[in-house]
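Input (structure):
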């Protein structure tokens, strides 16, 4: 009987010892997972801070926080089009640059805005009106290297400028102060990608809308 009791006690202690030994392992795994999550969050926050610091050092005239926040707002509002590759956003020394594929805005081969393009501009400037109500807006047109051969425009500059001007005129019609607006065309001479591929040419046919840090009545020297 005594032997049976001692044997049972030994089994009980061994079992408890195994349990006690297992709990720290589970606890360590949970602690490691929590630490990994904190590390990833810290990396993300550090990347954002680095981006703001770099911009601040190079762009002292730019309200960095305003433009970073503005870019975040646009990214959320235009998430589907960004994912589809129709629009791209970046903050540069010029301000917030919104690049739009021409097919999203215009009737093919034309400087006339499509109904879809007008609706898309309405969407962009409903966001811009709330976050950048006084900033200058520069609209730039760009083409690929085949616009003349296909559409018989006088020059790439004519075609790209006509498209930029169409955007500016539409914004004026929608109530944007014309003092804030300007248009320019760069033809095929500032490509984003190689014109040797169909996708490269698509990327080069674009409108760039630059929301400047300069504001009406507050020009930066």
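Output (sequence):
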């Amino acid at each position: 009987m005594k032997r049976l009791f001692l044997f049972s006690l030994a089994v009980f202690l061994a079992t408890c010892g195994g349990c006690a030994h297992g709990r720290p392992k589970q606890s360590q795994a949970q602690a490691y997972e929590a630490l990994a999550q904190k590390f990833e969050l810290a990396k993300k926050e550090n990347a954002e801070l680095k981006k703001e610091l770099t911009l601040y050092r190079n762009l002292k005239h730019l309200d960095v926080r305003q433009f970073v926040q503005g870019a975040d707002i646009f990214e959320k509002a235009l998430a589907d089009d960004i994912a589809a590759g129709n629009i791209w956003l970046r903050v540069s020394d010029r301000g917030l640059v919104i690049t739009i594929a021409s097919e999203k805005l215009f009737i093919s081969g034309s400087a006339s805005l499509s109904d879809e393009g007008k609706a898309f501009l309405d969407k962009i400037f409903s966001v811009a009106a709330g976050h950048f109500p006084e900033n200058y807006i520069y609209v730039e047109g760009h083409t690929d290297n085949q616009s003349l051969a296909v559409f018989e425009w006088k020059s790439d500059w004519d075609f790209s400028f006509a498209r930029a001007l169409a955007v500016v005129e539409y914004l004026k019609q929608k109530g944007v102060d014309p003092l804030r607006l300007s248009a320019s065309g760069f033809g095929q001479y500032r490509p984003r990608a190689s014109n040797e591929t169909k996708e490269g040419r698509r990327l080069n046919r674009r409108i760039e809308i630059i929301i400047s840090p300069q504001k009406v009545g507050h020009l930066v020297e």
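Notes: Residues 1-23 have pLDDT under 50 and may be disordered. Helices lie at 2-58, 64-77, 79-83, 115-131, 147-151, 156-173, 198-204.
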